[in-house]
Design a protein that fits this description.
Layout: E1 2-3, E2 18-21, E3 24-27, E4 33-39, E5 42-43, E6 48-56, E7 63-71, E8 76-78, E9 85-86, E10 89-93, E11 100-108, E12 113-122, E13 127-132, E14 147-152, E15 158-164, E16 173-181, E17 196-197, E18 202-204, E19 211-212, E20 218-219, E21 223-225, E22 237-246
Parallel strand pairs: 1-3, 5-14
Antiparallel strand pairs: 2-3, 4-6, 6-12, 7-11, 8-12, 9-12, 10-11, 13-14, 15-16, 16-22, 17-21, 18-22, 19-22, 20-21
Length: 250
């Protein structure tokens, strides 16, 4: 026979437990879970990585008061333009240059999940950074933490992107700046290159007002492919900027 236990006079629902005692089984749903993934997980000093948090409600009942935080430590910070992307209901705090990311007042229905993405920057110190969140708390109690590793390697080129301003109205413009930074690298880097496709609703403005101290710049209305000359001297930092325009999504 299965009995469902319930605490009375408590503000917290009973955490997920399955206990068998003799012939009696007390069963309630398993806890919600929180995961953390850095991508890429190996970056150069000053390089960017995206921290993605996934919250998954497996409790069998709705959850409220969801909250967690992540202390990034002394060698990782929130990017100046953190490119926050979230479909979670709640309040996310991730300020450029800060060493903490926090989420509070979240809610998930039965079987629902949601994700939060925040860009972070690697510091100047070479090595492995094992980063662990606080416990995921909710009205059902603590639900466990999440851990992932982010390695900063001085053999890699630092590469980052920033928008100024970070929020624009329809038909407004913003400047997107990419930075190649080899100042912390002990070796030269040969011909770094990348390609980025702009998302729907964002195009190069006319005029684009491109400014760069990189050579080999090539671009189109939807793609930008800069390639900088080789080799980079040890103290070199290269920037390129383009003006973008936000358009209505049709």
């Amino acid at each position: 026979m299965v009995f469902l236990g319930k605490f009375f006079g408590s503000t917290k629902r009973m955490a997920a437990v399955a206990t068998t005692l003799g012939s009696l089984a007390f069963a309630v749903p398993a806890p919600a879970d929180l995961s953390l993934v850095f991508s890429p997980d190996n970056i150069g000093p000053g390089g960017q990585s995206t921290a993605t948090f996934t919250l998954n409600n497996t409790t069998g009942g709705p959850l409220s008061e969801l909250a967690f935080s992540l202390n990034l430590g002394a060698n990782v910070t929130v990017a100046g333009a953190p490119a926050i992307d979230s479909n979670c209901n709640g309040t996310l705090t991730a300020t450029g240059g800060a060493s903490t990311i926090s989420f509070a007042d979240g809610g998930l229905g039965i079987g629902e999940n949601c994700t939060i993405s925040v860009q972070v920057l690697g510091g100047a110190t070479n090595g492995l950074n094992t980063l662990t969140t606080s416990q995921l708390s909710s009205d059902a109690g603590d639900q466990g933490d999440a851990t992932d590793d982010l390695t900063i390697s001085d053999s890699l080129l630092g590469f980052s992107k920033a928008f100024a301003p970070t929020s624009v109205a329809l038909n407004g413009t913003t400047t997107m700046t990419y930075t190649f930074d080899n100042t912390a690298n002990g070796t030269n880097v040969l011909r770094p290159a990348f390609t980025e496709t702009l998302p729907t609703g964002l195009v190069f403005a006319s005029p684009v007002n491109a400014v760069t101290d990189c050579s080999g710049l090539a671009g189109s209305r939807r793609k930008l492919t800069p390639a900088c000359p080789a080799p980079y001297p040890l103290t070199c930092k290269r920037n390129l900027s383009d003006r973008l325009q936000r358009l209505p999504v049709t």
